[in-house]
C-alpha cells in the first residue's frame, strides 16, 4: 500500500517535471523568437543610423574639400588630410556601430569622392583611386557573404532546440 502510494507520487512528480521542462523549452523558444524579432528591428535601426551618419561624414568631407582650390585636387599633399579624415570618419562610425570596415556604405562614399574629385587626375593617382574591380568586389562582398551563413547557423540551431510536443 505504502509502496503503491510512493510510486504514484513519483509518477506524478515525474510528469510534473516533464511538463515543466517542456514548457520551459517552449518559453525559451518564444524568447528566442522574440530575440530574433528584436535583432531584426535593431539591425534595421543600425542600418539607417549607418546611412545617416555616413552621409554626415560625406557632407563634412565636401565642406572640407571646398576649401581646396580645384586646381589642387590632384595634389596629394593638398587633399591627403581631408581624404584621411573621411576615411577615419567612416571607420570610426563602423566601429561605433560594431560593423565591419570596409563595408559597402563606406565604399560607396569613398568611390563617390573619387568620382567627384579625382576622376581627371593622372594615372599614378588614378591607380590609387580606383582599385581593380575584382578587389573592390571582394571587399564589398566579404562582409555581406557572411550574413547568410550566420542566418543558416541560427536557423539550424533553433530547429534542433525545438520541443517535440
Ligand atoms: C508562446 O507565445 C505564444 C504567442 O506569442 C503564446 O500563445 C504561447 O502561450 C507562448 N508559449 C509559452 C509557453 O509561453
Ligand atoms: C516575431 O515576428 C513575427 C512576424 O514579424 C510574428 O508573427 C511573431 O509572432 C513574432 N514573435 C514574437 C515572439 O514576438
Ligand atoms: C573636416 O575638417 C575638420 C578640421 O580639419 C576635421 O576635424 C573633420 O574631421 C573633417 N571632416 C571630414 C569628414 O573630413
Ligand atoms: C573632369 O573633366 C571634365 C571634362 O573636362 C569636366 O567637365 C569635369 O568638371 C572635371 N571634373 C573634375 C572633378 O575635375
UniProtKB/TrEMBL annotation:
The keyword Zinc does not apply. It comes from the Eukaryota. GO terms for biological process: angiogenesis; calcium ion transport; cellular response to hormone stimulus; G protein-coupled receptor signaling pathway; intracellular protein transport; protein localization to plasma membrane; protein transport; receptor internalization. It comes from Xenopus tropicalis. One of its GO terms (molecular function) is coreceptor activity. The chain crosses the membrane at residues 135-156. Belongs to the RAMP family. Residues 1-24 form the signal peptide. This is Receptor activity-modifying protein 2. Keywords: Cell membrane, Disulfide bond, Membrane, Receptor, Signal, Transmembrane, Transmembrane helix, Transport. The keyword Transcription regulation does not apply. InterPro entries: RAMP, RAMP_sf. Pfam families: RAMP (PF04901). It is a single-pass type I membrane protein. It is found in: Cell membrane. GO terms for cellular component: cell surface; plasma membrane; receptor complex.
